[in-house]
UniProtKB/TrEMBL annotation, chain A:
<dbReference type="GO" id="GO:0046653">
    <property type="term" value="P:tetrahydrofolate metabolic process"/>
</dbReference>
<dbReference type="InterPro" id="IPR038561">
    <property type="entry name" value="SoxD_sf"/>
</dbReference>
<dbReference type="Pfam" id="PF04267">
    <property type="entry name" value="SoxD"/>
</dbReference>
<dbReference type="GO" id="GO:0008115">
    <property type="term" value="F:sarcosine oxidase activity"/>
</dbReference>
<protein>
    <submittedName>
        <fullName>Sarcosine oxidase subunit delta</fullName>
    </submittedName>
</protein>
<dbReference type="InterPro" id="IPR006279">
    <property type="entry name" value="SoxD"/>
</dbReference>
TrEMBL record, chain B:
<feature type="domain" description="Rhodanese">
    <location>
        <begin position="32"/>
        <end position="76"/>
    </location>
</feature>
<dbReference type="Pfam" id="PF01266">
    <property type="entry name" value="DAO"/>
</dbReference>
<dbReference type="GO" id="GO:0005737">
    <property type="term" value="C:cytoplasm"/>
</dbReference>
<dbReference type="InterPro" id="IPR006076">
    <property type="entry name" value="FAD-dep_OxRdtase"/>
</dbReference>
<dbReference type="InterPro" id="IPR036188">
    <property type="entry name" value="FAD/NAD-bd_sf"/>
</dbReference>
<dbReference type="GO" id="GO:0016491">
    <property type="term" value="F:oxidoreductase activity"/>
</dbReference>
<dbReference type="InterPro" id="IPR001763">
    <property type="entry name" value="Rhodanese-like_dom"/>
</dbReference>
<protein>
    <submittedName>
        <fullName>Sarcosine oxidase subunit beta</fullName>
    </submittedName>
</protein>
<keyword id="KW-0560">Oxidoreductase</keyword>
Length: 101, 413
């Protein structure tokens, strides 16, 4: 894994990225008991194989999702976090102008 | 030891013996099965057979003896942690190393040279004061030292780091030291097999037969065995082995890399560590400089190593000792470490009644080899978790009573 394809900035050197660990399934704070909270906080995906993780392109502070194979150390896919919430994965055209005031 | 040397050294007719017998066939059943033939599993086997009279024991090792993290670690032994529970535990680890060569009749080359951790900022120094107070309170030898004392302890150290990481003081831990990792594992293996423990190399645990809340049998690539009790000490694969038994562990795998240089004349007596630079160094008895540092930046289930980490370690080493700049690297490697959220191991009971955990040793478990073995054996023999192990239970994650040792483990050793 040398190059990562940032959904916002395109392919960049992997040293520009920071990993924020596996995506956690959502939890309902109104109904979750202690055991559920414990699992939510501490029981993260350790499957040897493809896992889904939060990553950040550090210089632009852009957060996104990567699917990565933890055995071969290969990136399978990268996409915007919106896709996690059931929205279509569209490589939307965002220009830096739009997000900067 | 010295008498033995005379006895065997002078006559010249001493016949060398094998340290451990060849792997026998698996029997149908064992009182205790130990999953993992690393330092921890072998130490538990030693204590079970020597102090609890339990000898119908099988150590199941999927590869060769102690070829996991025991073979890959940088052998830092220390007790300068920050919580009472940890310090009490690791303090006993250090004291067991002091008598280990005698206990095992095997020279483990324990060298108690002291460990110096460097502070490059006032805030680090403040946290060192806390660690020193906690350590002294628990009866370990530890103190905060100033720049002048750092210079005296480690005369070749580059103190100003070009102004970037100026050394402002340190944490001096006189109890710290190193030992030879292979000797530790082989010493325990020789003792245990001498008392009848069977060591099964190339024997991989592939599944469990569970009956109610107990493990009835273990399935391996060489056959199935019935078991009375089980100790799991599977190193980097702990999370995966537990999952086969239906037990969820809060563990993720990260590679940890290290390297050694060509041998040099002795110049570095203490162990030196810098959390800011994520680098620590020790000169081995062969003269090689062993260099270690922080874990990889993301999880992985493979022992590949990277140029990035090598550059980072070399950078730290050259900052501390600039004259190392043209020294050549001799070997480099990685191990998969089983990391817990609070940088503290998981020991004791599991949801299965006869299945005991010795897991989550991450980047810091070599030093705990004797003490974990001693109390895991006691736990199994009495079928009750030893008092000193109680705080390290798996249950602590449910009750959110974590034992945070992240700060005291920052340069991963
Ligand atoms: C680069 C590096 C540097 C380190 N430096 C230090 C240090 O300075 N100080 C320190 O205290 N600690 C250090 N550590 C951590 C230390 O090495 C480990 O915590 C310790 O060695 C763990 O010992 P163990 O016996 O539990 O595991 P291991 O030695 O890993 O033994 C576990 C064994 O279980 C076997 N196994 C796994 N799955 C199965 C299965 N299904 N069936 C049968 N057998 C199986 C494996 O093959 C392995 O041999 C370091 C680790 C690394 C990688």
């Amino acid at each position: 894994m040398k190059i990562m394809n940032c959904p916002f900035n395109g392919p960049r050197n992997s040293s520009e990225f920071t990993c924020f660990g596996p995506v956690r399934p959502p939890i309902d704070p109104d109904t979750a008991d202690d055991a559920a909270w414990s699992r939510h906080m501490f029981q993260l995906d350790n499957t040897p194989g493809v896992i889904r993780e939060w990553w950040r392109h550090t210089p632009s502070n852009y957060f996104f999702i990567a699917e990565r194979n933890t055995v071969t150390d290969e990136i399978v896919a990268t996409y915007e976090p919106a896709a996690l919430h059931g929205k279509a994965i569209t490589p939307k055209e965002i220009t830096p102008k739009e997000i900067m005031p | 030891m010295p008498l033995t040397l005379l006895k065997y050294g002078l006559p010249g007719d001493h016949v060398p013996t094998r340290d451990i017998p060849p792997t026998p066939d698996l029997k149908r059943s064992y009182d205790v099965a130990i999953i993992g033939g690393g330092g921890h599993g072998l130490a538990a086997a030693h204590y079970l057979s020597k102090y609890h009279g339990i000898r119908n024991v099988a150590v199941l090792e999927k590869g060769y003896l102690a070829g996991g993290n025991t073979a890959r670690n940088t052998t830092t032994i220390r007790s300068n942690y920050i919580t009472n529970q940890s310090i009490r535990f690791y303090k006993e680890a250090v004291s067991l190393y002091e008598s280990m060569s005698h206990e095992l009749n095997f020279n483990v080359m324990f060298s108690q040279r002291g460990q110096l951790t460097l502070a490059h900022s006032d805030s680090t120094l403040r946290s060192f004061h806390l660690r020193a107070e906690m350590g002294r309170h628990n009866g370990t030898r530890i103190s905060v030292v100033d720049q002048q004392q750092v210079r005296e302890l480690c005369p070749h150290l580059n103190m100003d780091m070009g102004g970037q990481h100026e050394v402002v003081g340190g944490l001096w831990h006189e109890d710290g030291g190193t030992a030879r990792h292979d000797a530790v594992a082989w010493g325990y293996a020789a003792q245990a097999s001498g008392r009848g423990v069977e060591i099964h190399q190339r024997t991989e645990v592939q599944g469990f037969d569970i009956a109610g809340d107990r493990v009835a049998a273990i399935r391996t690539n060489r056959g199935t065995i019935r078991v009375g009790q089980v100790i799991q000490a599977a190193g980097g694969l702990n999370e995966q082995v537990a999952r086969m038994a239906g037990i969820e562990l809060p563990i993720r795998c990260f590679p940890l890399q290290a390297m050694v240089t060509q041998p040099l004349k002795p110049f570095l007596n203490t162990l030196v560590s810098s959390a800011n630079l994520h680098t620590y160094l020790v000169q081995s008895s062969r003269g090689e400089i062993v260099i270690g540092g922080g874990s990889d930046p993301y999880q992985l289930a493979a022992t590949r190593s990277t140029l990035d980490l090598k550059e980072q370690l070399a950078h730290g080493a050259v900052q501390l000792f600039p004259f190392l700049h043209n020294v050549k690297l001799l070997r480099q490697w990685a191990g998969i470490t089983d990391m817990t959220p609070d940088y503290t191991p998981i020991m004791g009971a599991s949801p299965l009644k006869n299945y005991w955990l010795d897991c989550g040793w991450g980047t810091w478990g070599f030093k705990a080899t004797p003490v974990a073995g001693k109390y895991m054996a006691e736990t199994v023999a009495r079928e009750r978790v030893a008092d000193i192990l109680q705080p390290f239970s798996l249950k602590r994650f449910e009750t959110i009573s974590l034992i945070n040792e992240m700060g005291a483990t920052a340069a991963s050793h």
